[in-house]
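RETRY 2/3 - previous attempt timed out on the joint model. Re-submitting the same 839-residue input unchanged.
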Amino acid sequence: MRVRRQLEQAVAVAALGGATLLAVVVLIFILVFVLSKGLRIVTLDFLFQAPRDMGRAGGIFPALVGSIILPLAAVCIALPAGVGTAVYLAEYTAEGRLTRLIRTGTDCLAGIPSILFGLFGFIFFVTVMGMGWSLLAGALTLAIMVLPTIIRTSEEAIRSVPRSYREVSYSLGATRWETVWKVVLPSALPGIVTGVMLSVGRCVGETAAVIFTAGVALRIPMSAFDSVRTLAVHFYILAREGISMENAYGTAAVLVLAVLLVNTVSYGLMHRFIARRER
Amino acid sequence: MKWSGEHAVAAVLRVIAFSSLASLLLITIFIFKEGVPFLFSHGAAHFLLSSRWDPMAGEFGVLAMIVASLVVTFGAMVVGAPLGIAGAVFLNEFAPRWVARVLKPAIELLAGIPSVVFGFIGVMVLAPLIRNHLGGPGLSVLCASVILGVMILPTVMSISIDALASVPNSFREGALALGATRWQSVHMVVLKAARSGIVAAVVLGLGRAVGETMAVIMVAGNTVRIPISILDPVRTLTANIAIEMGHATGAHRDALFATGVVLFLIIMALNGIALGAMKRGAR
Amino acid sequence: MKGTMIFVRIAALVLLAVGALLSVGACARRRGEVITVAGSTAFQPFAEKLAEQFMRKRPDLRISVQGGGSALGIQTALSGAAQIGMADLVELPPEAASLTAIVVARDGIAVIVNPANTVSNLSSEQVRAVFSGEIANWRQVGGDDRPIRVVSREAGSGTRTSFEQILGNFTLAPAAIVQDSNGTVRETVANDRDAIGYLSHGLMTDRVKAISVDGIACDDEAVIAGRYRLVRPVFFLVKGAPEGGVRDFIDYVLSDEGQKTIKDNGLLPAGTEARME
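RETRY 2/3 succeeded.
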């Protein structure tokens, strides 16, 4: 009887472990597939040269610039709005039906698929507001897309700042805003930064919303109204059109490495934040 | 002096908060404003129940796309949920701490890989495999389901881990004290306790699968036809919007917004179920 | 108090920066320096190449080339989101009537199969039957006993609209696979030995094999002479009369240098009747 239960457990653990292993194997396969074919293409020239012949030759510099500028612009728009909203919800209003409603709404909106953002951005920013395919249209669309994430993570971070911090600040005579600005926000900073990194990661990998709003121009943008191509879009076009499989793999390698970097940094920050909180 | 600054700041924050909420609402309102009139003028029933999509002839029926989205999402669940839940149980309940600490972030890295890379691997590796060994064009329900399943795996796994981790240790210890093996305590006690959280994890994963666009366009074949076998090519709601968006004028564009409305409602429903399940678990 | 001041100062700086960026961009726009060319994916790579060359001569102008398909080209030319719309259509639809249409090139549509396919010629009736789904097996047209997999462009593609119109306005086979650009059609056919598709002649590579239609191969000579039926013009569509940078670019495309670039890269030159007055 006892042996049978032990056997059952051994089988179960083996199966579960096997499933986990399978998931890990898949991840490794993807990384190996992309990096083995792509890393050798990634030279300094590849990174910093302009593409020639529609991407068949040359490098990926404009797309690299695009992948840095576009998420940056989106975060510049979303961060003040998101943190401001989180501060308002957490510090300036009482918990009640209104705040719960807002929070549910934000959670729901976090689930809207990126293609709908692309559709909205194309019709509203590109066409109706006349921005054309531009960095600005892309940044605004991406900003709205990551806004719920920033609001959610910022609010969580702010709420988890211990009450005692605020009480000490008030007892020293600070006003509510001074408390927020000098005590609460600095303490909540790691959590907020985590939210920002997650958003940046999402923007870097985003394709559907970007193609329809920022366009596909292969030049370094000179103004907010210039169209800009990101690495993800460039990869999509190179791979789909069969323009240059080599360069496609190279672009994918850069993209995957960039995402790995952003994710690793945000994990490090998140763990430091949790560790600090538990102290 | 200080307090007038305070009022100003509070006012500014209020404006910011309401503007960001307003911009979030803007999308919802916009999509509904453009899509709902179409449903009324062309008939929602016809739109939802006809499988003929021929914009040039004025025929707009999204049934084939709804079926495609549902079938592909269900397939993704079949692939991704068992693996995700199994992985979560293993990492949280059985694996040594150092293994969990290494593998958990590693698998969550999968979540950060752009969807176009997944689609690319689907086209280059999986579709030919399916075509050569199973038949059909390779670009199919099966291909899309597997790729999407792998994409939602990290989501399902990490939320399931959260659900499992929030089950109090006393539950496990109680079962062990009664003589159960570790596995018995897990599947008889812990899993039941974490059930609503795990359900929420799966449903959120489904939400992500339904909304995926780029990978699906690359691997599903984009044929507007109700699939009969998993080797048939299909077009999902998201792919339909993306493929036709640039071409649409007039009624065609309104039909795409209406497709967006249908998609939006499906995802809201899924999110609602997930949130409801999580709240029930918290009680 | 100090905190508020710092906040206010930072906010003011940010607003100033954003405002500066926007106004610089807005000025650039108003001077007409950024010309957006959007539409036909068949012509898009050529437009990009021409734009690259043109901008080297005219560094004061910036041309941004987007794709999206011929229908999008018409739509954005009408809405003003693009200054030049590209459309490769046999006949322009009624909504394009208000736009000025200038032929800048001609393009044949090649019917392509996988290089491993034994079939090398089909009559136009056969092509029509295959693409409408009536003929479903390669055996029926002289090939091996294997199912035919039709690959098509999406509804709204100029290439597809022209293809279907020239062959008699048939309805595409319901089982056809749909891809959203010439390149992806080509890659799909190149990877599937049972596939058949159609492709802009200018985008042919040796990854796929072009079959002859009615015994006539899709080459330059046959297309110019009019013997190969599947040909369509590529239009640049402009709202009103072209002027300024737009006119300069169109002039460049129609110039000897521009037409030579088009010819060297596999497309056909516009022909004498396309010169702008």
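The first strand of chain C starts at residue 34 and ends at 39. Closing ticket.
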